[in-house]
Automatic annotation (TrEMBL):
Organism of derivation: Anaeramoeba flamelloides
Protein name: NAD-dependent protein deacetylase
Catalytic residues as annotated in Swiss-Prot or TrEMBL: 159 (proton acceptor)
Family that this chain belongs to: Belongs to the sirtuin family. Class I subfamily.
Top-tier EC class: transferase
Entries under PANTHER family matching the protein: NAD-DEPENDENT PROTEIN DEACETYLASE SIRTUIN-2, NAD-DEPENDENT PROTEIN DEACYLASE SIRTUIN-5, MITOCHONDRIAL-RELATED
UniProt keyword list: Metal-binding, NAD, Transferase, Zinc
Gene3D superfamilies tied to this protein: SIR2/SIRT2 'Small Domain (3.30.1600.10), TPP-binding domain (3.40.50.1220)
Superkingdom, natural source: Eukaryota
Enzymatic reactions: N(6)-acetyl-L-lysyl-[protein] + NAD(+) + H2O = 2''-O-acetyl-ADP-D-ribose + nicotinamide + L-lysyl-[protein]
One matching Pfam family: SIR2
Amino acid sequence: MSSKIQKNYRRQEEDEIQKLTKQISKISIKTQAPTFESIARGISKGEYKKIIIMCGAGISVASGIPDFRSPKTGLYANLEKYNLPYPEAIFDISYFSEKPEPFFTLARELYPGNFEPTPVHHFFKLLEKKNVLKRVYTQNIDTLERCAGVNENKIVEAHGSFATASCQNCSEEYKAIDIKSTIMSGKIPYCKYCEKGIVKPDITFFGEQLAQKFWWHETDFPKADLLIVMGTSLQVEPFCDLIKNVPKSCHRLLINNVEVAVNRSSGYRKKTDMGFKFNEKSNVRDAKKIGDCQKSIKEFVDLIGWTKEFKKLMKKKN
């Protein structure tokens, strides 16, 4: 082989090596599980641009609203005064049709305007201001995401909310303010148009179809690069199954007072193996922060480096 041919061969070989090196450098190989701290750094560096939040009643407890399932303090554990056949009956459409009084008694306690957003709700707004919030999927009916200033189009109230109401007879639509005085006076609101139907807040009761907006998840979740799950037991279907709908490359962070939805090898839902893998060697995308979610979110904001803006946002809104 002549020296000229050898030089050309080496040059081609070097060119191929350079190309391969460039390709490899572009590949993000995730060999370690993320942490609460590393995800905060990632947000700070702009590595996450399509963040989805999944949240439940636990994020609103600090505002004075009880969660649903805590054994002693939860809503379902303190409904004796309503003489219900079973706790969930207060949100059962069949029971409501026969006896709406218990629900409206409870509605007076939970109605929007009685409670203020928590630091967690304000964090959602800050994510929106930073243009990294894809959507907030909330199980809550309290409208506190709206009260914190989060744009309505950024919120999916999976189980409906008090924000709007509808006549059960003619489907005439109402705003929350339209029926508030009637509910607060201890009366049942009836439709002023058909004069027959009860006007029920657009909360999704057991036995009703989920709001159409809920199905946005079919296009939202496949695009997410970070999923943050907060203040929820993840026990109610189909909401609880959404955590498996993000890409495998998407990091998932649980900020909760207890671990939930761990992989089936640890007892999660038998029909899926897409639960959190916190304690498994194969984990490359799940992180957790167990404890009070309000304290945790303040720590998270500090780690991101948004403390000054966060305090200013909370002060402005309050």
